[in-house]
Specification:
InterPro entries: Asp/Glu/hydantoin_racemase, Asp/Glu_race, Hydantoin_racemase-like, Iso_Racemase_Enz_sf. The chain is of the alpha/beta class and 247 residues long. Helices cover 42% and strands 15% of the residues. A four-stranded parallel sheet has the order 2-1-3-4, with helices on both faces. It is globular.
Length: 247
């Protein structure tokens, strides 16, 4: 058996993007770490706003419960909005890391200021909210959008990937940043190539989150069950939410 099993959750329903995210996770996983890449069976095909995140959060919780029942050691939420992160931590036993949170933390370890490159302009406000929530607003030099939808990263044309590259180059020229954070799980496989080409740290949150979960597991640290992240109160859930009952 593998010494560590990490469940990597793509909160949208795209199987292709789930495979991309899983490949990026496996590329950095330590020997003996098993990556279980999953996505909800129902929900939204891509996450590009608050409405999408609200729907996706339910799918995340469903997968968290499944992973907990399967005995995984930790979980990664592989969407840059980190949908349902705190609720997932309530439901989970092991550590749960969101890729935006992970990427921002990693960026501050290798640069004093970083820029973010993401997909649609409407998602920039979500990234700004997270910067404030996680305490990284003063570390972020600027945010950029390639102005293409999330699933353009999976259409095989290469246009979205080239726009990501161009925006990274622009950020380095204009922002005074020392690192780039890729603001979408679908960009996960681009980080290493861009790091080599641009000679600066380009950080993918999927990879960063996997290494953080591995570290927490190795240190014997799990999600605190004291205080607000304790398991949800035992109460009767109705309708389709009955399956989420943690007890």
């Amino acid at each position: 058996m593998s010494s560590v099993c990490i469940q990597v959750i793509n909160p949208n329903t795209s199987r292709g993007m789930t495979e991309t995210i899983g490949a990026a996770a496996r590329a950095v996983a330590a020997p003996g770490t098993e990556i279980l890449a999953v996505c909800p069976e129902e929900g939204v095909p891509s996450i590009e706003g608050h409405f999408d995140e609200a729907i996706a959060a339910v799918g995340v919780l469903e997968q968290i419960k499944k992973g907990r029942q399967q005995g995984v050691d930790g979980h990664v939420i592989a969407c840059f909005g980190d949908p349902g992160l705190l609720a997932a931590r309530e439901l989970a036993q092991g550590p749960v890391i969101g890729i935006a949170e992970a990427a921002m933390h990693m960026a501050t370890l290798v640069a004093t200021r970083f820029s973010i490159v993401t997909t649609l302009p409407r998602t920039l406000i979500i990234a700004r909210h997270l910067l404030h929530q996680y305490g990284f607003h003063d570390h972020c030099a600027a945010l950029h959008a390639i102005d293409l939808p999330v699933l353009a990263l999976e259409d095989g044309s290469g246009l979205a990937q080239e726009k990501v590259r161009a925006r990274c180059i622009q950020a380095l020229k204009e922002d005074g940043c020392g690192a780039i954070v890729l603001g979408c799980g679908g960009m996960a496989t681009l980080a290493q190539e861009l790091t080599r080409e641009l000679h600066v740290p380009v950080i993918d949150g999927v990879s960063a989150a996997v290494k953080m979960v591995e570290s927490l597991v190795a240190l014997g640290l799990s999600t605190s069950k004291h205080g607000d992240l304790a398991f949800p109160e035992n109460k009767a859930l109705s309708g389709k939410f009955q399956a989420l009952n943690p007890f």
